[in-house]
Amino acid sequence: MTARILIVDDDSIVADSLADALRAQGHNTATARSAGVAATALKEAERTARFSLVITDVSMPGSDGFSLLRHVTKEHPGVGVIILTGYGSVESSVRALRLGACDFLTKPVSDAELRAAVDRALTRQTLLGESPRPAQDNPSGLRNIVGSDHRMLRVYELIQAVAPSRTTVLMTGESGTGKSLIAHAIHDSSPRRTKPFVEISCGSIPETLLESELFGHVKGAFTGAHADKVGRFLAANTGTIFLDEINSASPGMQLKLLRVLQERHFEPVGSSQTVEVDVRVVLASNQPLEQLVADGRFRQDLYYRINVVSIDLPPLRDRVGDIEPLAEQFLKAHGAELGRQLTGFSPEAMAALRSYRFPGNVRELENIIERAAVLCRRPTIQLEDLPPQVTAPSSEGRAAPSPRVGDEETWVPMPLEEALREPERRIILRALKANHWNRQRTAEQLGINRTTLYKKILALNIDAGDQEAA
User: Fold this and answer.
1) Backbone angles phi, psi at 361, to 5 degrees
2) Would the CATH topology of 4-130 be identical to that of 416-466?
3) Does 39 have pLDDT greater than 80?
4) Across the chain, what does the average pLDDT equal?
5) How far apart are alpha carbons 55 and 32 in whole angstroms?
6) pLDDT of residue 459
7) CA 404 to chain centre
8) According to the model, what pLDDT value does residue 237 have?
9) CATH number of the domain located at residue range(s) 416-466 in this protein
10) Topology of 150-314 in CATH?
11) Rounded CA gap, 258 and 61, in Å?
């Protein structure tokens, strides 16, 4: 897929380097040294050959990359934007993504990273441009998904955009964030909705059996194979297969999956007969695949093959506003199962739920509500109906003061990982400040790679506002 791309950076060396790399990949490129010049170029291109994509640096004199992002989103909605960061904070880049940017890259950018990001952005823009927007607020396929957080609204948009195609979708997010529900929604919103939907968790099946589960086997293929078996891929033929926890697949299995995704055929275990399938593949990982690729534990070619359209599901603790509607929905469902008329939550109970951090995310919330529905004695769920970890002032999962290492403060029981968060946060902040927020140099001094540092910055909620505190 070739495109016309505008690169915006006040550093001419960076702009020309990116332009050269993209031209070598077959794209038509132009450069601009400021957001103002870029805005003029975009307007003029509307009358001739439009740009498909803008790659812009964040830090530029005058109007910065965020201003340009807002301008492009408002005035040129068909143009995708990739944010390029060097010294800016990760939190600022994430905010840009939430405001509509397709992706973000960190300088220096490798050719492989650039190619993958551009391919993802162009595919996303094509799908968004071709997909008709539904008139109803919660269309078929999304009826079981609750949430009005802006990040979830973007997820809904991506589901509707990608569903009509056969494009591979990769979902990322913590365990319990609802990846299986999203996979079902993609299938139910697609032309394959009446065909099979097959789900398999790669992490729950021993490596020695996973190949047989996915591709089937013939009688006598191995000890215990007393009859032919149809694998999950063939069972999902003409429909959708959802491969959860793909991060746990072995290197050998990753190679076999790559072949199936590329060629759409395979051989059952013990057979020389090739089987062709027409199947939509949706995958999910509960670990960052970029880090696994960097560590050599996940094939780079498979990662680029499956990361065509990515959907990142935010943890429940980051969308507190969705806790109440989710809890209400779960209460209604479990009340119906129990044959009880449950009317809602007391203010104290809802306040406790909203302040809990939900390490198990939406799945944990549903379990908590099911327990409350079974145990409650009144139509309204009270504080005492909730489990101790939700109601205890310093329970696991609830925000509690982090103890300082090396002082004489009273010990607050908590997991070691949580106790180490604040000291680690202070160390990273000091290192970032000492290096003027240059993440590449900070990572080198800390003895970790840049991707690991980026993940820690996100996990520890470090942003530009912390610079003075560092």
Assistant:
1) 60, -145
2) no
3) yes
4) 83
5) 10
6) 74
7) 32
8) 94
9) 1.10.10.60
10) Rossmann fold (3.40.50)
11) 45
**pLDDT band with cut points at 50, 70 and 90 for residue 246:** very high
The fold of the 317-391 domain, in CATH, is: Helicase, Ruva Protein; domain 3 (1.10.8)
- Kindly state the percentage of the chain with pLDDT values over 70: 86
Summarised one tens digit per residue, pLDDT across range 141-160 is 565 677 777 778 888 888 88
- Quick one: three-class SS letters along the chain? CCCEEEEECCCHHHHHHHHHHHHHCCCEEEEECCHHHHHHHHHHHCCCCCCCEEEEECCCCCCCHHHHHHHHHHHCCCCEEEEEECCCCHHHHHHHHHCCCCEEEECCCCHHHHHHHHHHHHHHHHHHHHCCCCCCCCCCCCCCCCCCCHHHHHHHHHHHHHCCCCCCEEEECCCCCCHHHHHHHHHHCCCCCCCCEEEEEHHHCCHHHHHHHHHCECCCCCCCCCCCECCHHHHCCCCEEEEECHHHCCHHHHHHHHHHHHHCEECCECCCCCEECCCEEEEEECCCHHHHHHCCCCCHHHHHHHCCEEEECCCHHHCHHHHHHHHHHHHHHHHHHHCCCCCEECHHHHHHHHHECCCCHHHHHHHHHHHHHHHCCCCEECHHHCCHHHHCCCCCCECCCCCCCCCCCCCCCCCHHHHCHHHHHHHHHHHHHHCCCCHHHHHHHHCCCHHHHHHHHHHCCCCHHHCCCC
Fold of 4-130: Rossmann fold (3.40.50)
Q: Which residue has the tokens 């979830």?
A: 152
Residues 6+ apart with CB under 8 A from 173: 179, 284, 286, 312, 313, 314, 315
| pLDDT tens profile 285-306 | 988 888 888 888 999 999 989 9
What pLDDT digit, counting tens, does each position of 182-209 carry?
999 999 999 999 999 999 999 888 877 8
Q: What are the extents of the domains in the chain?
A: 4-130, 150-314, 317-391, 416-466
